[in-house]
Amino acid sequence: MLDLDLSSVGGIINHGGTVLETARCAEFKTEAGMKKAVSTLKKHKIEGLVVIGGDGSFRGAHQLSNRWGVPTIGVPATIDNDIAGTDYAIGFDTAVNTALQAIDRIRDTASSLRRLFVVEVMGRQAGFIALETGLAGGAEEVIIPEIDTDLEKMCQKIVRGYQRGKRSSIVIVAEGSESGGAFKVARQIGDRTGFEVRVSVLGHQQRGGTPTALDRVLASRLGAAAVQQLAKGDTDKMVGIISNRVEVSNLDYAWKFQKQTDLSLLKLIEILSI
Ligand code: F6P
Questions:
Q1: What is the CATH number for 163?
Q2: Contact call for residues 172 and 143 (beta carbons, < 8 A)
Q3: Which atom belonging to ligand 1 lies closest to the Cα atom of 129?
Q4: Phi, psi of 22 (to 5 degrees)
Q5: How does residue 1 score in pLDDT terms, banded at 50, 70 and 90?
Q6: Alpha-carbon distance 103 to 133, whole Å?
């Protein structure tokens, strides 16, 4: 076991991942697992918990607070950015920038050889990463779980683009979309257009690397706010960022409300990529 003191958080701001090595834990979902967690907290005289994660972690935190009286504050952190109560979750901006770098590189080779690429990004059941990387990367098309895509229409637009002189096309597919993933989409586009389509699945690289300034600032602000809430005696809450202000909401907000994807971004991508 690792004793945490002041020096434990020195020199970590520029690293991805977690020094705590914490993760979702199946045992914690059982009564026995929860009792074990509570007795461990008591044994180590831990007076309050800051739970960093997504809605699964927050559900556990809610139980700890409500059933066992452990003061608990949630800090939203997931590249998927699918947590209500915050505009941005920690990790999202870094993941978007990582995916964007990959897309920029793919664009170079695609333009050189007049190729069409289908690029799959993460995001679980949400299209936040796909939409932001799509817009920032000048993608021709973005397929997300929140909306059905008309593949035939999409293919016609891609063909028109090449006829007008486009040198490349990039279709971004969110992993959770109904389309069945990048390989299936690539096959369907190939069958409909006759183009040779290449696929790139970006995968777990989106979950590591040097955090962006935006993520570092967000993590610093939310971390400090979480500690302040605990110091005030608050519990069963999460801290988030709304319109660039730190806001506090009930933990259960994170799973009772579905965060809405801004579909106007999809429209904008369609207009800008004509
Ligand atoms: O929730 C974050 C996330 O990276 C999702 O985008 C992805 O679907 C999932 O985790 C991958 O999980 P694992 O690392 O267990 O394969």
A1: 3.40.50.460
A2: yes
A3: 6
A4: -85, 155
A5: low
A6: 8
pLDDT digits (tens, 9 = 90+) for 140-185: 999 999 999 999 999 999 999 999 999 999 999 999 999 999 999 9
Same domain, 132 and 102: yes
Distance CA 156, CA 272 (A): 16
Q: Which domain holds residue 144?
A: 93-207
189: in domain: yes
119 and 62, same structural domain?
A: no
Q: Using DSSP, state whether 137 is helix, strand or coil.
A: coil
Test site for ligand 1: of 52, 57, 79, most ligand atoms within 8 A of the Cβ: 79
Ligand 1 centre to CA of 135 (Å) is 22
> Above 90 in pLDDT, residue 2?
no
Task: Evaluate whether residue 265 is within a structural domain.
Answer: no
- Our answer on whether the CB atom of 78 is closer than 6 Å to any ligand 1 atom is yes
Q: Beta-strand (E) ranges in 135-258?
A: 141-143, 169-174, 197-201, 237-242, 245-250
| Residue 3 token pair | 């004793």
Is residue 99 in contact with ligand 1, taking CB distance under 6 Å? Answer: no
DSSP letter for 261, please: P
Contact 249, 238 (CB under 8 A): yes
The CATH code of the domain that includes 246 is 3.40.50.450
Mean pLDDT confidence for 100-110:
98
- The candidate with the shortest Cα–Cα distance to 114, out of 164, 181, 157, 155, is 164
Active-site residue flag, 5? no
**Of these residues, 55, 80, 93, 215, which one is catalytic?**
80
